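Translate structure to sequence.
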């Protein structure tokens, strides 16, 4: 059921579409294929270029890494960045990541021309986080941001110049240092669940502040991560079977199996009911974002998943009805709103919505009748 989730995502992708490197060297820059990122103002095409020879090593920022970065506008005269004078950020550092206010009037959601700390995975600035993927400490890159037509509004606060729509705006990004992070497959079930809860809470906060794109991004991240918890739910038969298989191994495998078994019984991971409820709420909240963003087809797909996961969810049924109403599927819309009234008989909003459905259906029938009469007159 969740494997087709990406097809109903509210944007093309919140991560890189491709990391393939193009072969051409223009002005000694190695340019990568573009990808799509999101900001409070909409979707943006991002293209990264490496401005110097790549450093060696396997360590790069991962989820949870705290990165010390500096972003500058390339259109301005940029002073040489002195990394040596800046203290490195490490696990032993007294780290406090400042949450910068997100703004619809800014492309990037971090201050320019000064060193700041950014935690990977929190989605403070999706554009910068995407550019940090694969970077090594001490490296710099340039990236160009261009609005996706129809999905973003013109912005000015980051831009002192007025580049053409085709050229976009160019920034430089310097990665001074970062703390270790984890890939999702390296996390324990408890760590994953904590991230899921954090994404959901962040999505609700952003939605409340009118940052609909940011809320949708947070809910998408939560859904993608919560899916990986399947089979690691506390107290399920599947989890117990997995525990037995792991603990039956010998030597180091047995020790790992015992650790896994203890992890699946931790109160910090969800029960089956909590897991299903979380998935249902995430899909339902995502459908509301998609309705606000004018994406009724995606909203219908998300709310359909929510009602399947939690048939008693009044909000999910109502959002399904709204999506179907906008799509002109009056039959399914009527069924969804009737389901709302079945669960909540005193719902005035559902009764009003049903009247809208009947009025629009009657209007459509009238227009169809007029067309048929003209055809046979």
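Result:
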């Amino acid at each position: 059921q969740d494997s087709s989730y990406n097809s109903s995502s509210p944007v093309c992708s919140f991560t890189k579409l491709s990391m393939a490197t193009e072969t051409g060297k223009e002005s000694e820059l190695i340019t990568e294929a573009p990808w799509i990122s999101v900001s409070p103002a909409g979707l943006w095409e991002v293209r990264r270029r490496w401005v110097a020879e790549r450093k060696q090593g396997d360590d790069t920022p991962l989820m949870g890494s705290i990165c010390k970065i500096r972003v500058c506008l390339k259109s301005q005269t940029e002073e040489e960045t002195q990394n040596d004078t800046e203290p490195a950020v490490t696990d032993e550092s007294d780290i406090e990541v400042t949450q910068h206010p997100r703004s619809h009037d800014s492309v990037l959601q971090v201050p320019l021309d000064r060193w700041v700390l950014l935690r990977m995975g929190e989605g403070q600035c999706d554009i910068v986080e995407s550019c940090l993927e694969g970077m090594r400490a001490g490296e710099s890159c340039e990236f160009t941001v261009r609005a996706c037509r129809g999905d973003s509004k013109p912005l000015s606060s980051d831009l002192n110049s007025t580049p053409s729509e085709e050229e976009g705006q160019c920034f430089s990004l310097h990665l001074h240092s970062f703390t270790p992070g984890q890939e999702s497959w390296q996390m324990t079930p408890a760590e994953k669940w904590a991230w899921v809860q954090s994404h959901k809470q962040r999505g609700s906060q952003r939605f409340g502040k009118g940052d609909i794109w940011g809320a949708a991004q947070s809910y998408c991240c939560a859904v993608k991560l919560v899916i990986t918890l399947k089979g690691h739910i506390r107290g399920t038969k599947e989890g117990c079977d997995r525990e037995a298989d792991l603990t039956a191994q010998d030597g180091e495998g047995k020790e790992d199996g015992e650790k896994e078994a203890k992890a699946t019984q931790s109160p910090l991971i969800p029960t089956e009911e909590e897991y299903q409820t979380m998935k249902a709420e995430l899909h339902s909240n995502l459908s509301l974002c998609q309705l606000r963003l004018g994406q009724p087809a995606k909203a219908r797909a998300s709310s359909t998943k929510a009602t399947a996961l939690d048939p008693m969810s009044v909000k999910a049924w109502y959002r399904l009805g709204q999506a179907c109403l906008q799509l002109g599927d009056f039959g399914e819309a009527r069924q969804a709103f009737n389901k709302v009234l079945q669960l909540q008989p005193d719902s005035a909003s559902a009764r009003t919505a049903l009247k809208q459905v009947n009025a629009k259906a009657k209007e459509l029938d009238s227009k169809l009748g007029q067309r048929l009469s003209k055809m046979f007159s």
